[in-house]
Design brief:
Shape: globular
Number of helices: 12
Radius of gyration: 20 Å
Order of helices and strands: HEEEEEEEEEEHHHEHEHEHHHEHEHH
Oligomer: single chain
Largest sheet: 7 strands, mixed
Number of strands: 15
Structural class: alpha/beta
Strand content: 15-25%
Strand order of the largest sheet: 9-10-11-12-13-14-15
Length: about 375
Amino acid sequence: MNPKLDFTNPAHLKLALLSEGMRFDSSVLKKIGHLQKEKIRSYNNSDYTDIVTVPQEVHLGDGVVVGTHWRDESPWQFKEDNGKITLFYNNNAITAVDIFDRPKYYDLEIAEGMPARRVGVTLGRGAVSFFMRENCTYWNRGMPCKFCSLAPTQKTFNETENYKTPDLMAKVIEKVLECGDELHHIQFSGGSDWDHDNEFREYIEAVSAVSTVLGRRIDGNLITMPPRDLSLIDEAYNRGMNHISFNLEVWDPKLFDYVCPGKAESYGRERIIEALEYAATIFKNGTYTTTVGGLESLKTMFEGWEYLASKGIAPAFNIFHPNPKSVFRKKQAPSIDYLLEAARFQHEIYQAYGFEALLCKSCNRNALDNEAKEGYFN
């Protein structure tokens, strides 16, 4: 264990688990998929195991939640110990943890033979995520983002509908509200369409439909490629969305072309930055871009964060995890030292500019934004 980590700090445990992965003893899996929430693979699959039914995430304490990334070689294992789910490090018990109850709305039908979980998936304690389009033009053209495993994941598991209409998404939210399941945030994302204006208009209709059911504006995240017609960004805000993300993934220009060849060809890095800067004038205190931690040097990533922050764009920080069927399947997750330094710098950026983390701590599973913001690593 890295001596810089504190075993009693749940955020430190999360950081270690995102770096080194985890595994689960069979004793922990008994209730998954009926009493406790199972992983539903809307897009990527990061588990190096043949076991399909695994937890979506684990609550480590103090509201800190970590997504599941199964690695058989990981020193971290969850086992049942004296009736409690316990995290072990090299067979030494560290702390008791929780797995969230399965949402009641999951099995309710929203169309004939279609349970709601095939359209909306709850992340963490209460963020309903809609991955709108399982088909991605970048995969179709042989130029996917190299960390992504969308197409092979959907082909292997087929756990969600290929396309979610605004009407279906609205019905999911109706069921969530009827059941009294927790609902803190709503997230929209999906595979890309080469016609980015068409793609964006589809999201606007989804936002409008869901906002109407809620009876209020939507806190959460709209993750998409930016439209070519930037006035559509105004429309997304006017129809009820409070937060938006156009994800650069990496800041370094040459690395961007290599990691995201589809994005580079269909839109281009400089135009994405221009769109982000425009969005920041509309979604004030609500514009984000994600960088994937571990794909570039801290130096270039921090340069990007500083520039973006100066333009009112909050840098979000998802941790890279290799997916078995992605181009980067053999690439290692970032080291603990890398993540510690990044989280400390992100804390400085968020403090200096007054940024808030996307989603909340109990819903944000694969990022350290909330924990960095709150100073867990300082």
